[in-house]
UniProtKB/TrEMBL annotation:
<dbReference type="InterPro" id="IPR011146">
    <property type="entry name" value="HIT-like"/>
</dbReference>
<dbReference type="InterPro" id="IPR052908">
    <property type="entry name" value="AP-4-A_phosphorylase"/>
</dbReference>
<dbReference type="InterPro" id="IPR039383">
    <property type="entry name" value="FHIT"/>
</dbReference>
<keyword id="KW-0547">Nucleotide-binding</keyword>
<feature type="domain" description="HIT">
    <location>
        <begin position="49"/>
        <end position="158"/>
    </location>
</feature>
<dbReference type="InterPro" id="IPR036265">
    <property type="entry name" value="HIT-like_sf"/>
</dbReference>
<feature type="short sequence motif" description="Histidine triad motif">
    <location>
        <begin position="143"/>
        <end position="147"/>
    </location>
</feature>
<dbReference type="Pfam" id="PF01230">
    <property type="entry name" value="HIT"/>
</dbReference>
<protein>
    <submittedName>
        <fullName>HIT domain-containing protein</fullName>
    </submittedName>
</protein>
Amino acid sequence: MTHDESADVPGLVAASELPGVPDEFQRLWTPHRMAYIQAGADAMREACPFCSAPGKSDEDGLIVHRGRSAYVLLNLFPYNSGHLLVCPYRHVATYDQATPEEVGEIAALTQRGMQVLRGVSRCDGFNIGMNQGRVAGAGVDEHLHQHIVPRWDTDANFFPIIAKTKALPSLPGQVRQAVADAWRE
């Protein structure tokens, strides 16, 4: 982005106008991860984040839609911007423990999430999936949740492979608001 282009974006300041000495390092600002760092991984096991999220405001819980038996929220630790999770309100660990109503609503919310993300982010595809149990890779293995990860033809780069880093161009609050607004349309 050039200096002239940055003038058109509210709140964006050209790097040349900021104090400091430029160097060859790139900085990835990820302030949303501080909650995880400060609480530690044990806090996730002590209190289920998917049981507590519905008791918070939509903004604080990163919730984009509330259904009857399931809801949709942004992943606080996303693989890509717009990474959504579809969760039943009820605390069940695996898909086979979900009721037919929960299964149906999880499926319908997944479809709607894909439609909304396609409109909001113009993604080229999706990874959809559930990790059942810690051995299968579930970060929160005691509460069922389905991932909807938007993908773009250009989203693969060396960061995740070499540096174990994912560059996310939008902050969670901005993404949550855009998805929640589009969901209601």
